[in-house]
Specification:
This protein is of the alpha/beta class and 401 residues long. The chain is 40% helix and 12% strand. It is built from 15 helices and 13 strands. Strands 1-9-8-5-4-2-3 form a seven-stranded mixed sheet, sandwiched between helices. Strands 7-6-11 form a three-stranded antiparallel sheet, with no helix packed on it. A three-stranded antiparallel sheet has the order 10-12-13. Strand 6 (174-175) and strand 7 form a beta hairpin. Helix 11 packs parallel to helix 15. The longest helix is centred in the C-terminal third of the chain and has 20 residues, at 271-290.
Length: 401
């Protein structure tokens, strides 16, 4: 069986994690702080906060901006549930927007139509690792400034809708020469097991707020929030005579451990030189194979302004129904190849359907979802295995069409 996206766990990672285990420091400590430093340098910003998940980072960002009951947050209908779930956690309303038919990213036109005086945040999702059109999104937020209703000091200071990037897929992607992490006010990466860079479970917030915001101060504040509102972490408390601490807020427990950060440090060290080229080579092989078939709609992964992180290869089959797509997937699995679908749209999920969201309101999202099949992309996938995958997909499509 060819799996969909197993993590890269080699001897280098095993040795590094073993060394951290032997060090006696396994929770948040020096490795986590070093990963934060390396991530901020990689993205070209001053501050990054490592956490136990990207979901935690998205929610912390919303809560820091004071998003609460009655507020609205614009998110794409075509995304994983975490993007909208965090809005629900804050008591706010997810306002779903349709996506572009070509790159699967949130539609700027749909964003503009969705903005009201209750809108506090726009949360673009870099689908499959391809950055959204952030300049256009910022222009929309700027245009809406005149109607923005600030409800707290943070919102007054920014004076507009916050741009919070769900960059779960896009570490290493670029937009107009800028790295993901430097494209929005706050960006959040995922280091889940299936991501390009994994810490098993984990994520990071990257801060890029404009003056007069102090990103270093916000990092310190949210470091406290992410650890129960405790004023000192374990490293600080371990200093001689420095055991006393205070709880200054009812915070959360979502810090990253040094065990996780150790994996991340190894992965980040080889990310640009090794991981990204290998993923690009796999995707280039898929492109070369499927480009000759009239039924294959290939994903946008690079254009004049953007380059993906090559997280996914979302192949779409032209002129088929959802039922036909599902039959193709089953036939691919029957050939011992694992594939996936990104994503089942939010309006098709029971929770969001019960809230009143209807799939018919997002026709582009549904059209893309109904024809989409994500093919395996992972570091250890060999060219021989790629040949097996492409053969399985081609034969399965031809049996159904």
């Amino acid at each position: 069986m060819i799996n969909f996206a197993p993590p890269r766990i080699d001897e280098k990672i095993i040795e590094a994690v073993s060394e951290t285990l032997r060090s006696g420091w396994i929770t948040t400590g020096p490795k986590t702080k070093l990963l934060e430093k390396k991530l901020s340098e990689y993205c070209g910003v001053t501050q990054a906060l490592c956490l136990n998940s990207a979901t935690a980072g998205l929610e912390l960002a919303l809560r820091w901006y004071g998003v609460g009951p009655g507020d609205e947050v614009i998110v794409p209908a075509y995304t994983y549930a975490a993007t909208a779930n965090v809005v629900i956690h804050c008591g706010a309303i997810p306002v779903l927007a349709d996506v572009n038919k070509d790159d699967l990213c949130i539609s700027a036109e749909a964003i503009e139509k969705a903005i009201t005086t209750k809108t506090k945040v726009i949360m673009p999702v870099d689908f499959g690792g391809l950055p959204c059109n952030y300049d256009l999104i910022y222009a929309i937020a700027e245009k809406a400034k005149k109607d923005f209703q600030a409800a707290n000091e943070q919102q007054k200071k920014l004076g507009r809708i916050l741009i919070l990037s769900d960059a779960a897929h896009s570490l290493g992607a670029t937009y107009k020469g800028r790295n993901a992490g430097k494209l929005a006010d706050i960006s959040v990466f995922s280091f889940h097991a299936v991501k390009n860079l994994t810490t098993a479970e984990g994520g990071a917030m990257v801060f890029n707020l404009p003056a007069p915001f102090d990103n270093a101060l916000i990092y310190k504040q949210l470091s406290i929030t992410s650890l129960h509102g405790q004023t000192k972490d374990a490293m600080a408390k371990m200093q001689k005579g420095n055991w006393k601490y205070d709880i200054v807020e009812a915070g959360y427990k979502c810090n990253m451990t040094d065990l996780a950060a150790t994996m991340g440090l190894i992965e980040l060290e080889r990310y640009t030189s090794d991981t990204l080229p290998k993923r690009k080579a796999i995707i280039d092989a898929y492109y070369n194979f499927f480009s000759v078939y009239s039924w294959a709609e290939l994903p946008v992964l690079k254009d004049e302004e953007r380059e993906s992180s090559y997280h996914l290869f979302p192949l779409r089959i032209k002129d088929i129904t959802e039922e036909q797509r599902d039959k193709i997937i089953q036939k691919i699995f029957d050939r011992d190849v694992a594939v996936n679908v990104h994503f089942i749209p939010l309006p098709m999920m029971s929770f969001y359907k019960n809230m009143g969201y209807e799939m018919n309101d997002y026709p582009v999202t549904y059209n893309n979802f109904s024809r989409e099949i994500s093919l395996p992309v992972y570091y250890d996938l060999s060219m021989e295995e790629i040949a097996i995958v492409t053969k399985a997909v081609r034969e399965s499509v031809m049996e159904v069409l």
